[in-house]
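Q: Could you write out the predicted structure for this multi-component system? I'm mainly interested in how the pieces pack against one another.
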Amino acid sequence: MADLQAVHAMMAADRASQSLGIELVDCADERASTRMTVRPDMVNGHGMAHGGMIFSLADTAFACACNAAGPVTVASSGDIVFVSPARVGEVLLAEAVQRVGFGRQGVYDVTVRCGDRVVAEFRGRSHRMATPGRGE
Amino acid sequence: MADLQAVHAMMAADRASQSLGIELVDCADERASTRMTVRPDMVNGHGMAHGGMIFSLADTAFACACNAAGPVTVASSGDIVFVSPARVGEVLLAEAVQRVGFGRQGVYDVTVRCGDRVVAEFRGRSHRMATPGRGE
Amino acid sequence: MADLQAVHAMMAADRASQSLGIELVDCADERASTRMTVRPDMVNGHGMAHGGMIFSLADTAFACACNAAGPVTVASSGDIVFVSPARVGEVLLAEAVQRVGFGRQGVYDVTVRCGDRVVAEFRGRSHRMATPGRGE
Amino acid sequence: MADLQAVHAMMAADRASQSLGIELVDCADERASTRMTVRPDMVNGHGMAHGGMIFSLADTAFACACNAAGPVTVASSGDIVFVSPARVGEVLLAEAVQRVGFGRQGVYDVTVRCGDRVVAEFRGRSHRMATPGRGE
């Protein structure tokens, strides 16, 4: 069952997400969604949302999804395909869902959308930290 | 030959990189390096530099490297492996270099380090926009 | 609508898939599934199915899915996470489905399973070749 | 120091590589190179070397590089960018080198070439199996 208290505590301590205005919209077992509005201070030199900002939004949804089950879990890697550019003022929604879990690892898919338009497809791999006494 | 004026103009317009304090350290043909200090407002809920901040630093080095040759080039995708966590106050250096170019595409590798310690390994794919009259 | 004749003609010419005993199980718009039995000549030095054999199965499902719509489409890249080892005699099924299409590109996810067990998760990017007169 | 006996024993048991005619050309600490000639039974439905065959060649070089140090090490994931097509009769050389090692993990880059032409760029992640008494 999702440990929403742990996720909310994690988000309360996540100053990077706060500074980007990322909000947790929803969270349940192995899934989560986050939202961010593209601000003028988030664009790159081509006038589009910086890839790092879109990655940050997706990565935060991923972190909430993979920590919803309790034990501390970190991202070991992530890859992102940029599908369409996002512009200032657009509201982006990232939806993360676990694709598969195995041992202490997991693969999560995150789709970032602006309305119906896909902005990016992210896939992340997670690693659950060892917990004393769990015998893993 | 590197078109450093184009890169500097791009960085001057890159408000996301500016808000993260990312500086262009060096730029030449198909390579570039950027630097960022991890600030207290860049940590995630586990007290480490947020993956999105590290990705942003690497992505900016990548953008400078692939735009050094002139025509507007954008990232089509990127993947990152997180090797070691980075903490508040640490200075991170990202070094981007083109691995291969083919047609309008390129593959770039970016290593993010804190001193001698590797923090992350990033690989990005670029796509150069069509230019009228180039016949591509 | 899926152009199954084109897919069957492609598979008939795909000598690599034939030599691995890969069969097309099903194909429809932007989705396809393929099957392969792990033979004794497909194991690596650790006695498990070679990663390249599992990649080949997934890549063939991906190729069928992205060519089902007609114009010639090729893989531009692929990544695979190995979830569990596969052994000699096991029958593997790869199911490919398009995640998103944009311009001449597409992102496809392929899950390789042995029964209910996930063996690998593959994600590929496709590129549709230019067709004279299509104005792309 | 490279444990070449272990690598040669691994290759002697690698029936998949043998059936593809993959030879170990060179092996040293954390690096290795392999060679394969594209045979008529290795092409896909478009008449080019099947992506899975190119992946297999790169994956074998990767396996030799990451097992050269001794303890059994397996691939946990791999990604490949297809740079140029390869045709029947062409001789492909894959050169693998470790990019970074951390804990029981490693990142390796493999470039596949035909002469001077780059055919593919592969990046793999390895995982060294736990050894009794090593305390990891």
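A: Regarding packing and overall arrangement: Chain C has three helices and six strands.
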